[in-house]
Structure formats: C-alpha cells, structure tokens
Design brief:
2 strands, mainly alpha, two-stranded antiparallel ribbon, single chain
C-alpha cells in the first residue's frame, strides 16, 4: 500500500494514461503511424511518453539501490513533499535525443508496452514508498536536479498531460 501522496500521484498518472489510451485506441494502424505535417505520429508520441516513463522508473530504482539503506524512511508527514516550480512549462523543452522516437512499434505492441511500463512504474513506486523521496536526487537532462518525487511528477504526469494537447491536435488534423 502506497502512502497517500504517492497513491494520489499514481492514481492521477493512471487517469491521464487512460485518457491517452482512450484517445488513441480508435485509430486504425495506418492513422496511428501517420504524421500530420511536421509533428510526430500518434505512435511516436506514445513511444516517446513510454521511453520517458521507463527512464523515470529506472532512475527511481537505481537511486534507491545505489543508496543501499542510507536513505531515511518515507516521512509520516508528507506536507514537505512538493515539486519545485520549473523555469519553463514542460512543453517548452525539446525532447532529449535518447527519448526521441524514430521507428516505434505498431499500435498493439505499443499499447502492450504501455501496460508493461506502468506495471514497472508500480514496482518503482513500491520501492519509493520505503524511502524519503526528497533525500535522493538525480539530474534530469532538461530540468536539472530533481528529487525522486519530482521525477515522476514532471517526467511522467506533467509530460504525458502536455503531450495530450499534441495528440488532440494530431487527431483533429488526421480527420480533416
């Protein structure tokens, strides 16, 4: 069982993922892979979102494992667990090379990967629930030094929510 703040974050991430998958599930394979103009295809957007989430999950696990019992336990008072204000909105940054999708898998494979990625994130959250997430930091290539609570808020939740606007625009252009 996750502490309330982590449980609320995970629920919100699940809601956003449900919205993303719902928006994309009605596309044909051809529509899913088709670009509208200069932007990414739906497949590329989803693949990018999943690469960012996979990286976040790895950061959480690596940071906790490399600290091997030196991190303080998860705090009873969660009020101090917050996300610092970013210098610019999430969408104002360009994706790092490592998570730019080139040739993503097909629709069914990406939807399967979305489920598996979230399952791995759940495992990472279970690990995160054992330590004070403010006590470990890891540099993010775009946002600088983030603690282990900020990583999933910024790189998963805010990031996917931002890309939902891109998905809505793409869907509107595909149906013209």
């Amino acid at each position: 069982m996750l502490p309330p703040k982590l449980a609320a974050l995970y629920r919100e991430m699940e809601e956003v993922r449900g919205e993303t998958v719902s928006a994309l599930s009605g596309l044909t394979e051809e529509e899913f892979s088709r670009k509208a103009g200069e932007g990414w295809s739906a497949a590329q957007i989803l693949h990018h979102i999943l690469m960012a989430e996979t990286g976040t999950s790895k950061v959480i696990r690596k940071s906790i494992k490399s600290s091997a019992g030196t991190l303080p336990p998860y705090p009873a008072d969660e009020s101090g667990i917050v996300v610092r204000k970013l210098p610019k909105p999430v969408g104002a940054y360009e994706a790092p090379e490592a998570i730019r999708p080139v040739e993503p898998p097909g629709k069914s494979e990406l939807l399967r990967l979305a489920r598996e990625t979230r399952e791995q994130t759940a495992v990472s959250f279970a690990m995160l629930a054992t330590v004070d997430p403010r006590a470990a930091h890891f540099p993010n290539p775009l946002f600088g030094d983030l603690n282990l609570y900020e990583w999933p808020v910024v790189s998963v939740l805010m990031h996917e929510r931002d890309h939902q606007g891109q998905i809505r625009e793409l869907l509107a252009n595909l149906r013209i």
